[in-house]
Predict the 3D structure of the following.
Amino acid sequence: MAVKAVNLGFQFPSSSPSSFGSSSPKLRKDRLVFRSSTVEQISFTESENSLIEALLGIQGRGRSSSPNQLNAVERAVQVLERLGGVPDPFIDYWSTSNLILQTKSNLIEGRWQLIFTTRPGTASPIQRTFVGVDFFSVFQEVYLQTNDPRVCNIVSFSDAIGELKVEGTTFVLQKQTEPRQRLLTAVSSGRNVKEAIEELVSLTRNNGEKEPELEEGEWQMVWNSQTVTDSWIENAANGLMGKQIIGKNGRIKFVVDILLGLKFSMTGNFVKTGTKMYDVTMDDAAIIGGPFGYPMQMENKFTLELLYSDEKIRITRGYNEILFVHTRTDASRMN
């Protein structure tokens, strides 16, 4: 299987990173999800895809997850735990008061990247300080089929600064990440986003998938390729901030939270003009405060190209040829 639910639940002493130490293991119940840091061509089962779908859109490796998202991840993990993964992957026994853990399978061996945990801030120095910060990469090295067995958690700062290592324990592993996850990871870190977009769009194009449509719902802009910053009102009117709501009958709305309960709202319509192409006209703008609104004389027209869309992620090219990445936020389509 591409995703393995490993029910170890042991915490080894951090004072001896090259061995398992002499104290008894402590049971851990928090969940972590890792992916292999090396890319392999592996197909996913339906149950594994359910976990991947549940993780899409979660930022900060779980720090910003909603209750609905956490429940979806929990359900997906429980399904994988029931399936069991590799049968009897471990042999453990006690020798001179030390726990000796050996593996029957080499699937767990290697370097894995952390993408999710239900406890991004704990007593663990790595989790408390770094796990919820997307700028740092967090890995786990698992090498148990050696004369020097070890499980280490690693924070990678940069090539110049180096890495921080401490021992780690309970984990759920994903052997290969998929293009959508790589895109959201790139968005979170702010690095190589265009490359991740090109990979996802090219893969969809090469697989001959059907033409995407503008999905109804509420979409949060999480990244755009704008390099020159305009005033906030211009950015809001051009869809460079906030949320985008796609309604029925070609209706579209931009919504931006300003401050103290005030919102910028601009509505309009879109018309499909060709394959993946839409003409968008935004012409009804206002500052909204509670039940009151202050109308603004604004109009904006642009062409929108829909590069990729599914129920959770959308990639478009819009105003001034700027690339946009949106994730769905309305709960009705997140369950």
Remarks:
- Residues 1-29, 91-100, 169-173 have pLDDT under 50 and may be disordered.
